[in-house]
Amino acid sequence: MATEQMQGETEETAATLLLPNLLAFQELIHSFPEDGWEKCWEQGLTPWDLGKPTPILQQLHQMGALPKGRALVPGCGMGYDVVSIACPERYVVGIDISEIALNRAVQLFSSSPNVNHFIFLKEDFFTWHPTELFDLIFDYTFFCAIEPEMRVAWAEQMSGLLRPDGELITLMFPISDHIGGPPYKVSISDYEEVLCPMGFEAISIMDNELAVGPRKGKEKIGRWRKIRVNSLL
């Protein structure tokens, strides 16, 4: 009981410490709609950055439970998730609009043992048209970062980037009732409303038991398959 109480106090403290940075980050994003994300990296206001790979994604990789082939991490930041799942059987592309974040990612991982199995690109997710599609896409703190009215465009681009029968993994955060953002509140139905019309079906939606710190209890992991549509022509 004492351990659980201590853990709860630690998480509450983490949430309290995060709040000033979160408010400053939100003010910066809304003050500079064109390059707010770059300014956040410049000033170190990156409350979404774990500073390490996402635990649940790393566990799925270690269990061999992720699709092989080509993978995409949009809004990859400093690239922890990109590098953590890159391997000879999976080539991972990380994209971001922040040049600062990508430069740091390259500096941090340029000597990684699996450096031949990943790449970082400065691209706008919504306008990017790669020459090859992906077997896996991982979305975390990206869906919640965009304006809610952009979510339909998000789903359309996800559908356009993923191969038929490919898998989209969404770490749904923050599941809450707060006002404003980013991060904007999300719910399972928010994802269903935009993904299902694009031909996605949910494989599973579960609580993320490996969510970190103050994110515990506010995250679910959704695994979606893009349904292969057979032409009638």
From TrEMBL:
The keyword S-adenosyl-L-methionine applies. Gene3D superfamilies: Vaccinia Virus protein VP39 (3.40.50.150). Pfam families: TPMT (PF05724). GO terms for biological process: methylation. Keywords: Methyltransferase, Phosphoprotein, S-adenosyl-L-methionine, Transferase. GO terms for molecular function: methyltransferase activity. PANTHER family: PTHR32183, THIOL METHYLTRANSFERASE 2-RELATED. This is Thiol methyltransferase 2. The lineage of its organism: Eukaryota, Viridiplantae, Streptophyta, Embryophyta, Tracheophyta.
